Amino acid sequence: MRLTILGGGGFRTPLVYGALLRDRGEGRVSEVTLYDLDAGRLSAVARVLAEQAAGEADPPEVSTTTDLDEALRGADFVFSAIRVGGLEGRAADERVALAEGVLGQETVGAGGIAYGLRTLPVADMIARRVAAVAPDAWFINFTNPAGLVTEAMSRRLGDRVIGICDSPVGLGRRVAHALGAQKPQEAWLDYAGLNHLGWLRGLRIDGRDELPRLLRDDGLLESFEEGRLFGAEWIRSVGAVPNEYLHYYYFNRETVRAYREARQTRGAFLRDQQARFYERMRDEAAPALKTWDGTRAEREATYMAENREAAGAGERDEASLTESGGYEKVALALMRAIARDERTTLILNVRNGTTLPNLDADAVVEVPCLVDGNGAHPVAVSPLEGHQAALVGAVKAVERQSLEAAASGSRSAAVAAFALHPLVDSVAVARRLVDAYREVHPGMGYLA
Questions:
Q1: 87: helix, strand or coil
Q2: Quick one: which H or E segment has residue 439?
Q3: 251, 292, 302, 340 - which has most CB atoms within 10 Å?
């Protein structure tokens, strides 16, 4: 079986390959093709993969290419983790937004909209090439903003494109562990929303919903990452455990202040950190895997550092790192279930159908899905209510405005996308954001 990784020169590609090395079941991936626009990055990552495979029995064969059609041809699965504009683009997203006093995070608020608007035309081009060159391939999307990009690509690829994220998995496992589950991975999660905008509303262990017990106990609530991030009192007020990304909504002012006071933004930190890694890889004598692993450990330990600072949540503990789920594990579980027709349940980004009645059938949502040889099928969940439904509806409207702007090249649609977002409180600010982003991002020059 052949897997193509778009953005194969990206820093996290070794995580995917490591998961493939551990998969020894029938019908495993035997060929991996890495595609990237940057041949130097491809070479660096290929060195890491070669060291990972050293001593392994029958590792997947790795090839690299900078030709998209060559990469897609013959693929059974395509995994996409591209970053249009690179980490310099992410750093610019943050910088422009913070100058206006609004959030520049890469998937939430102004930064997420900017990232989406320069990514959507590229995602549509890729979807067209997949439809032409590899129409039978399954497309697994991790490119952010994952829900928005998945919805755009589903307009050409239908249900053969599936979005993944490790945040809900990590949340569920941390909560299950706090509740004393012997097998946290087997707990049933009642989770619903959009990508990076969802809530854990129930968690069943041996058929019993244990979330009410969690909500009554301050000690349990504050024993895991999200509990410390939001605080027991607020989680009880919400009546559900929010995805960590909702911290940007519930504590927006505090987070923006922490971002503005930080020595550098997250995007700038990752840009500089990864630049050092790839520069180091130019030395053929450098130990590739050791260098990559040290860089990765620093990256994980500093994840959402500004949010934890704003909340007074302290450093990430070892448990939150080991129970993070891992997007590579989600991707492998998804591929395995489809390729081998092994039924499993995963939280995925798929077209809504009738799952959440307050959204239309084509809206991509993040919900539990039954996966088999025919793809991912959303499972019925309890409807979103109150502020959850309102917030999801508002952000989905922003996504639709972004899709309209990308399809039409309309500046006014782009302004509407920014202005309608709950974290951008001014049409005037929205107009300035669009103009500023058009100046710093060539990929947004199509907006007129």
A1: helix
A2: helix 427-440
A3: 292
